[in-house]
Amino acid sequence: MAIELARTQALPRPWGVVDLRPWNKVGNSGISIGEIWYERPGKPTSNPSLLLKLLFTSQPLSIQVHPDDAHARAIGLPNGKTEAWYVLSAAPGAKVALGLDRRLTQQQLRKAVDDGSISDLVAWQAVSPDDVIYVPAGTIHAIGAGLVIAEIQQRSNATFRLFDHGRQRELHIDSAIAVADAGPAHFQIRPNPLTDQRTLLVSGPHFVLERIDLAPNSSWCLEAKRETWILVLSGGAVAGSFDVAAADAVFAQSDNVDIHAGTNGMVALAAYTGVGPVPHLLRRLARPGSTDARQPQMVQLPTPLPRARTASTSSRLEIAK
After folding, report:
1. Rounded CA separation 214/96 (Å)
2. 268 and 145: one domain?
3. What is the pLDDT of residues 120-160, one digit of tens each?
4. Residue 181 to residues 3, 67, 102, 137, 152: CA-CA distances in angstroms?
5. In a domain, 293, yes or no
6. Which of 55, 85, 125, 225 sits at 20 to 30 Å (Cα–Cα) from 135?
7. Catalytic residues, which ones?
8. Do 196 and 142 share a domain, yes or no?
């Protein structure tokens, strides 16, 4: 059983930004930070299955792809890497890429990488705040400049670069081509309201991502039987014994989290392991002196997103976007 206030780790990246406000209270660090990772405090006996992070981009990231579970296990890793993005802020014209604009053979993909034309073949699309993008393993993808993104992913460091905008970092062409689905990809996910408070954003084979909207001064119990991460986007609350505000995150597992929203309410992302949304994730608590605690609302569970199909071969690993 655990309810913990997540600690943060800031990671320098060549494509990062110096001023992280309002998503980091430190403000201007003088160092280009590209990622903030949320981790369990202390020394847990095992790592969580999911990794929650924030991404900050002043330049385009590399064009890359991640392996699926089967490929990862074939090379000695516990799992592959599927991820989802929630756009927190976007400069005018900011874009992300998902998949290619047409289907290529492996030979055509290799040629596009060799001559650099891969940068023109990825399917770029403008994004706005609150957009959601699902990135199954095997999907060729990239993130453009001018974005702040919340990302939830399988905990894996396996990243194979196809193109890196002249940064002279190592590419992993053979590994990337072996695992890539070299064709178009389904782009944005349409949010699906489950209750007045819950909106389903992603339901895949590895995790579920929801947006939670709690009214001012309301009280709730969140069921966290599965590994669960809660990232506050706006407003604030008392979650368990912790005061949380925008950019704070809570980790919970095998426990229930009492959440008392503040005077401005609270908007948050909730990500948890497993297939399909939890039917009774939220239960409204009775007001002090009242005995009419409300039962959780029933939700209609949608069909999980399909797995991406990828090839399997040996490959090298890189911890980088």
Report:
1. 30
2. no
3. 999 999 999 999 999 999 999 999 999 999 999 999 989 99
4. 39, 10, 11, 9, 21
5. no
6. 225
7. 161
8. no
